[in-house]
Here is the input.
Amino acid sequence: MAEFKEISPNASMGEKLTNWFENRFPTMFSEYRKHMSEYYAPKNFNFWYFFGSLSLLVLVIQIVTGIFLVMHYKPDAALAFGSVEYIMRDVPWGWLIRYMHSTGASAFFIVVYLHMYRGLIYGSYRKPRELVWIFGCAIFLSLMGEAFFGYLLPWGQMSYWGAQVIVNLFSAIPFIGPDLALLIRGDYVVSDATLNRFFSFHVIAIPLVIIGLVAAHLLALHDVGSNNPDGVEIKSGPKDAAGHPVDGIPFHPYYTVHDIFGVGIFLMVFSAIIFFAPEVGGYFLEYNNFIPADPLKTPPHIAPVWYFTPFYSMLRATTDVMVYVLCAVVVLAAIAALIKGRQGTIGKIVVAAAAAVAVALLLTFDAKFWGVVLMGGAVIILFFLPWLDASPAKSIRWRPGWHKALYGIFVVFFLVLGYLGTQPPSPSGTLIAQIGTLYYFGFFLLMPWWSRMGEFKPVPERITFAH
Here is the structure.
């Protein structure tokens, strides 16, 4: 048994109470010191660093509001829509809880997208934070699954038909597709069995996975230390007499105050949306979802919620013509590798054989299957980012100006793909989506080459920060 820490009899009541708890629960206090008061973060964090704490805040909002919604929601195809109406109309403050949850879903993706973009521009996925990035991508993937399963629960027209379309995509997978789609639905069409499955995953299974991944993400981050806009490792820099990095400051109280400011701004915007425009023009809550699900009446235009639409655009952009373009890209890449590469005879044979196999596969399966592959690959490729970026500088601050232009074009295409996914298909829209899809994958797949090119600015040894 550990010895109790003594305290002066003249100490205040608060100090005595703290000492009482610390003697009986020392692990909590040691973890608090490790991850808060004695965790030193770089002193040059800017507004981009609000979005990590905001993601955690929205997760808490979603869990708390979800608990209250489950108290009144009925996962039954005959009762689900009516139970949502009951929550909105008859449960005291039920409308507020429901709007907080629906707005929180979109807010979650907004802050997570911005958080990931910050990691992208400042190189937060680079050594030694590869595992931090992988945990973050796993959170993003789990979040997409959580949102997909929750999308069906209101049992409105768009919920029903959106789930029908997305689940049917799995049937495009060769050999196992139809059986996989049947397993996900639990029936031959989206029905009560599907609703119960999705409810179980949305309420229990995936939230547990997300909470575990968030804990792993934070623990891994605090083990290796936070990145910063300069991309300088403060742990390897000069330290003070106590062994703390000179370029760092304690997370508490400095960054807790910093984050509270961001939370205040966020909650003002969040509240304004909830009270004045919870549908946000049909983007956060589609108007068709205020109509009960009707399996006999298909909406004229079916589209997922806005946060899925960039990937949905990639799916729709994958036509037969797009497949032929991909074949041409593979052939040209192989020719360039053979001409400029330094492979021996065996290496050239391997490159040519790989290209031939890739083209054969592209032509063997239909465009719908490759659309599903591209849609999933757009997320999976993010996991490999730490090994795709070969730039000598982590942060975009020290990279060539045209690198910033590439990142800017990437953001523009991602937003355009998101917008096109909300619109009915058109020839011009499909062409733009195809260009955007090629740019998205080209940005990552060609990163080992373009990220090394250009004239880089010298990376400072210390953080370049001034108050």
Summary: The chain has a mean pLDDT of 91. The CA atoms of residues 41 and 82 lie 49 Å apart. The longest helix spans residues 192-224. The chain is about 65% helix and 0% strand.
